[in-house]
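Protocol step 4 of 6.
Sequence for SPOR domain-containing protein (Clostridium aromativorans) entered exactly as in the expression construct, tag removed. Do not edit the line below.
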Amino acid sequence: MKYTRYDLKKDNSTKTFVIFIFIILLSAFILGTFIFQIIVKNPVNLGYTNTSQNKTESEYESNSVLKNEDVKFVAVQGGIYKDRNNVEKEKEVLSKHGIPFCITESGKTRVFLGIFSEDDADKIMKSLREQNIETSPKVFTIKQDDICDTEIIQIIDANLKILNKLSSEDVKSIQTVELKRWCSSIEKGEAGNYRNKSILKELKEYINKLPKEITKDNNDENYVYLFNKLNKIGSN
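Step 5 output, structure tokens:
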């Protein structure tokens, strides 16, 4: 009787090789899918900084890009009075919701509750209205005709975001170091012969002279300064 001889060793080696190739192909597929989903479709995860999501504590943008659109800032006004006693009463009411400041013109004093972006002002005024506190908007519209206007808008917006933080009860003071460093890096608007070049220079000098720390006690002075600048360059 004859017996057929099988080489079991060789057969096992073949199976091992096939399994090994299968594992390699599967791993390559998984790795390829990962690369496509994470790197190709979402390049921000590669470690590049996305400035619109990764802002500093001061929450301002660092890029000066002309957007050719009007930007509106809104001062929320409580009332206008001749009697100083009425001014103080109005300030007392508004101080429960933020840090009021006053502007006196032609013998009359207007009491404001901060300066905000258009959207934020709408929300604040709606909230006050629901609490039976009547306010009205004083709108400043700044046209972006050139890069100088854009940088003016950015500086004002960055400063206001810092000042408005002090309206929160848990915020006692705000550091200005980062704001000063960022502001000093803005240079495009001063390089050309632009209409509002002097305003940009004044704003940068003002930011540079701010104390290292802004508190609630001196915040109204900063609002007054920005109000007057907006009144000068913005159309009402």
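Step 6, annotate. The beta strands are 71-81, 101-105, 108-117, 136-142, 173-175, 213-215.
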